[in-house]
Amino acid sequence: GESVGLHLPTLSVQEGDNSIINCAYSNSASDYFIWYKQESGKGPQFIIDIRSNMDKRQGQRVTVLLNKTVKHLSLQIAATQPGDSAVYFCAENAFNQFYFGTGTSLTVIP
Amino acid sequence: GAVVSQHPSWVICKSGTSVKIECRSLDFQATTMFWYRQFPKQSLMLMATSNEGSKATYEQGVEKDKFLINHASLTLSTLTVTSAHPEDSSFYICSASPQGSYGYTFGSGTRLTVV
Description:
Order of helices and strands of chain B: EEEEEEEEEEE
Mean pLDDT of chain A: 88
Shape of chain A: globular
Strand content of chain B: over 45%
Distance between the termini of chain B: 37 Å
Number of helices of chain B: 0
Low-confidence stretches of chain A: none
Structural class of chain B: mainly beta
Shape of chain B: globular
Oligomer: heterodimer
Distance between the termini of chain A: 39 Å
Protein backbone atom coordinates (compact mmCIF):
# COMPACT_ATOMS: atom_id res chain seq x y z
CA GLY A 1 0.00 0.00 0.00
CA GLU A 2 0.95 3.63 -0.11
CA SER A 3 2.90 5.23 2.67
CA VAL A 4 1.76 8.37 4.35
CA GLY A 5 3.53 9.07 7.57
CA LEU A 6 3.76 11.75 10.18
CA HIS A 7 7.02 12.98 11.63
CA LEU A 8 5.73 13.58 15.16
CA PRO A 9 3.29 11.20 16.81
CA THR A 10 2.55 13.61 19.69
CA LEU A 11 2.61 17.36 20.02
CA SER A 12 1.94 19.54 23.03
CA VAL A 13 1.45 23.27 22.66
CA GLN A 14 0.52 26.10 24.95
CA GLU A 15 -2.90 27.61 24.47
CA GLY A 16 -2.63 30.60 22.18
CA ASP A 17 0.52 29.38 20.45
CA ASN A 18 0.62 28.21 16.85
CA SER A 19 0.74 24.49 16.07
CA ILE A 20 2.45 22.85 13.14
CA ILE A 21 1.71 19.24 12.26
CA ASN A 22 3.76 17.59 9.55
CA CYS A 23 3.09 14.79 7.12
CA ALA A 24 5.25 13.01 4.57
CA TYR A 25 3.72 11.18 1.65
CA SER A 26 5.32 8.81 -0.79
CA ASN A 27 3.28 8.81 -3.99
CA SER A 28 4.24 11.58 -6.38
CA ALA A 29 1.05 10.87 -8.35
CA SER A 30 -1.18 11.95 -5.47
CA ASP A 31 -3.20 14.94 -6.57
CA TYR A 32 -5.34 15.76 -3.59
CA PHE A 33 -4.72 15.95 0.14
CA ILE A 34 -6.93 16.37 3.15
CA TRP A 35 -6.34 17.03 6.81
CA TYR A 36 -8.77 15.45 9.23
CA LYS A 37 -9.31 15.96 12.94
CA GLN A 38 -10.50 13.08 15.07
CA GLU A 39 -11.66 13.47 18.62
CA SER A 40 -11.75 10.50 20.93
CA GLY A 41 -14.49 8.03 20.04
CA LYS A 42 -15.66 9.99 17.02
CA GLY A 43 -15.24 9.77 13.29
CA PRO A 44 -12.73 11.95 11.43
CA GLN A 45 -13.83 15.48 10.67
CA PHE A 46 -12.72 17.36 7.57
CA ILE A 47 -10.53 20.36 8.30
CA ILE A 48 -9.01 21.56 5.07
CA ASP A 49 -7.92 20.24 1.71
CA ILE A 50 -5.50 21.16 -1.01
CA ARG A 51 -4.97 20.08 -4.56
CA SER A 52 -1.58 19.36 -6.03
CA ASN A 53 -1.67 22.44 -8.25
CA MET A 54 -1.51 24.61 -5.15
CA ASP A 55 1.16 25.01 -2.50
CA LYS A 56 -0.83 26.84 0.14
CA ARG A 57 -4.41 27.11 1.22
CA GLN A 58 -5.87 28.98 4.14
CA GLY A 59 -8.98 28.39 6.15
CA GLN A 60 -10.26 29.73 9.41
CA ARG A 61 -7.24 29.59 11.75
CA VAL A 62 -5.75 26.77 9.66
CA THR A 63 -3.31 26.76 6.80
CA VAL A 64 -2.14 23.80 4.77
CA LEU A 65 1.19 23.91 2.97
CA LEU A 66 2.16 21.48 0.26
CA ASN A 67 5.71 20.92 -0.91
CA LYS A 68 5.59 18.50 -3.80
CA THR A 69 9.34 18.57 -4.27
CA VAL A 70 9.94 16.81 -0.99
CA LYS A 71 6.48 15.25 -0.73
CA HIS A 72 5.65 17.08 2.45
CA LEU A 73 2.40 18.42 3.81
CA SER A 74 1.86 20.51 6.90
CA LEU A 75 -1.07 21.83 8.87
CA GLN A 76 -0.69 25.06 10.76
CA ILE A 77 -3.19 25.99 13.44
CA ALA A 78 -3.09 29.58 14.60
CA ALA A 79 -3.82 30.55 18.19
CA THR A 80 -4.35 26.96 19.28
CA GLN A 81 -7.30 26.45 21.59
CA PRO A 82 -8.15 23.62 24.03
CA GLY A 83 -10.84 22.47 21.60
CA ASP A 84 -8.13 21.78 19.05
CA SER A 85 -6.86 18.87 21.15
CA ALA A 86 -7.39 15.79 19.00
CA VAL A 87 -5.62 13.43 16.64
CA TYR A 88 -4.88 14.89 13.24
CA PHE A 89 -4.53 12.76 10.13
CA CYS A 90 -3.32 13.67 6.71
CA ALA A 91 -4.65 11.73 3.76
CA GLU A 92 -3.54 11.58 0.15
CA ASN A 93 -5.65 10.67 -2.83
CA ALA A 94 -3.77 8.33 -5.10
CA PHE A 95 -5.48 6.29 -7.81
CA ASN A 96 -8.91 7.33 -6.49
CA GLN A 97 -8.26 5.97 -3.02
CA PHE A 98 -7.38 7.75 0.16
CA TYR A 99 -4.45 6.64 2.24
CA PHE A 100 -4.16 7.90 5.78
CA GLY A 101 -1.12 8.77 7.79
CA THR A 102 -0.48 7.43 11.26
CA GLY A 103 -1.88 10.46 13.04
CA THR A 104 -0.49 13.08 15.40
CA SER A 105 -2.01 13.59 18.80
CA LEU A 106 -2.21 17.30 19.61
CA THR A 107 -2.57 18.32 23.23
CA VAL A 108 -3.23 21.93 24.09
CA ILE A 109 -2.02 23.01 27.49
CA PRO A 110 -4.26 25.65 29.10
CA GLY B 1 -23.04 20.08 3.91
CA ALA B 2 -22.83 16.39 3.24
CA VAL B 3 -23.85 14.29 6.21
CA VAL B 4 -23.12 10.62 6.76
CA SER B 5 -24.98 8.85 9.53
CA GLN B 6 -23.70 5.63 11.06
CA HIS B 7 -25.66 3.33 13.32
CA PRO B 8 -25.24 1.98 15.92
CA SER B 9 -22.58 4.08 17.54
CA TRP B 10 -21.75 1.39 20.06
CA VAL B 11 -22.52 -2.31 20.25
CA ILE B 12 -21.51 -5.20 22.46
CA CYS B 13 -22.12 -8.70 21.21
CA LYS B 14 -21.30 -12.26 22.19
CA SER B 15 -18.72 -14.32 20.34
CA GLY B 16 -20.23 -16.19 17.45
CA THR B 17 -23.03 -13.75 16.77
CA SER B 18 -23.32 -11.35 13.85
CA VAL B 19 -23.55 -7.58 13.97
CA LYS B 20 -24.84 -5.24 11.29
CA ILE B 21 -23.61 -1.67 10.98
CA GLU B 22 -25.45 0.85 8.81
CA CYS B 23 -24.01 3.78 6.94
CA ARG B 24 -26.40 6.32 5.41
CA SER B 25 -25.80 9.39 3.33
CA LEU B 26 -28.51 11.74 4.54
CA ASP B 27 -28.53 14.55 2.04
CA PHE B 28 -26.78 13.14 -0.99
CA GLN B 29 -26.56 9.99 -3.03
CA ALA B 30 -23.44 7.89 -2.87
CA THR B 31 -22.72 5.24 -5.45
CA THR B 32 -19.57 4.43 -3.52
CA MET B 33 -19.02 4.19 0.21
CA PHE B 34 -15.95 3.12 2.08
CA TRP B 35 -15.54 1.06 5.22
CA TYR B 36 -12.59 1.53 7.54
CA ARG B 37 -11.37 -0.12 10.67
CA GLN B 38 -9.41 1.66 13.33
CA PHE B 39 -7.55 0.18 16.29
CA PRO B 40 -6.75 2.31 19.34
CA LYS B 41 -4.17 4.99 18.66
CA GLN B 42 -3.80 3.87 15.08
CA SER B 43 -4.81 5.24 11.73
CA LEU B 44 -7.77 4.26 9.62
CA MET B 45 -7.33 1.14 7.54
CA LEU B 46 -9.46 0.78 4.45
CA MET B 47 -11.33 -2.51 4.54
CA ALA B 48 -13.50 -2.34 1.47
CA THR B 49 -15.16 -0.17 -1.10
CA SER B 50 -18.92 -0.57 -1.23
CA ASN B 51 -20.46 -0.17 -4.67
CA GLU B 52 -24.17 0.42 -5.15
CA GLY B 53 -25.77 -2.40 -7.05
CA SER B 54 -22.64 -4.50 -7.34
CA LYS B 55 -20.16 -6.44 -5.25
CA ALA B 56 -17.89 -4.70 -2.82
CA THR B 57 -14.18 -4.49 -3.46
CA TYR B 58 -12.16 -5.76 -0.53
CA GLU B 59 -8.64 -4.79 0.42
CA GLN B 60 -6.00 -7.44 0.59
CA GLY B 61 -6.22 -9.44 3.79
CA VAL B 62 -9.85 -8.61 4.54
CA GLU B 63 -12.08 -11.68 4.65
CA LYS B 64 -15.07 -11.25 2.37
CA ASP B 65 -17.12 -13.90 4.14
CA LYS B 66 -16.34 -12.38 7.49
CA PHE B 67 -17.22 -8.81 6.64
CA LEU B 68 -20.29 -8.82 4.44
CA ILE B 69 -21.06 -5.59 2.66
CA ASN B 70 -24.33 -4.71 1.02
CA HIS B 71 -25.00 -1.47 -0.85
CA ALA B 72 -28.60 -1.90 -1.91
CA SER B 73 -29.47 1.75 -2.41
CA LEU B 74 -27.76 5.03 -3.21
CA THR B 75 -28.00 6.14 0.41
CA LEU B 76 -27.34 2.99 2.42
CA SER B 77 -24.45 0.61 2.83
CA THR B 78 -24.30 -2.05 5.52
CA LEU B 79 -21.37 -3.92 7.00
CA THR B 80 -22.15 -7.20 8.76
CA VAL B 81 -19.49 -8.74 10.94
CA THR B 82 -20.33 -12.44 10.90
CA SER B 83 -19.47 -14.90 13.62
CA ALA B 84 -17.78 -12.18 15.58
CA HIS B 85 -14.75 -12.92 17.74
CA PRO B 86 -13.03 -10.76 20.35
CA GLU B 87 -10.30 -9.88 17.84
CA ASP B 88 -12.99 -8.22 15.71
CA SER B 89 -13.48 -5.66 18.44
CA SER B 90 -12.60 -2.34 16.91
CA PHE B 91 -13.88 1.02 15.75
CA TYR B 92 -15.56 0.79 12.36
CA ILE B 93 -16.06 3.92 10.29
CA CYS B 94 -17.72 4.52 6.95
CA SER B 95 -17.28 7.40 4.55
CA ALA B 96 -18.87 8.67 1.38
CA SER B 97 -18.46 11.51 -1.04
CA PRO B 98 -21.12 13.48 -2.93
CA GLN B 99 -20.84 13.08 -6.65
CA GLY B 100 -18.48 15.61 -8.14
CA SER B 101 -16.81 16.26 -4.81
CA TYR B 102 -13.30 15.27 -3.92
CA GLY B 103 -13.84 15.44 -0.20
CA TYR B 104 -15.06 12.53 1.89
CA THR B 105 -17.41 12.78 4.82
CA PHE B 106 -17.11 10.27 7.60
CA GLY B 107 -19.73 8.71 9.79
CA SER B 108 -19.41 9.01 13.54
CA GLY B 109 -18.10 5.45 13.80
CA THR B 110 -19.28 2.28 15.52
CA ARG B 111 -17.47 0.88 18.53
CA LEU B 112 -17.80 -2.91 18.39
CA THR B 113 -16.91 -4.96 21.45
CA VAL B 114 -17.12 -8.73 21.19
CA VAL B 115 -17.20 -10.57 24.49
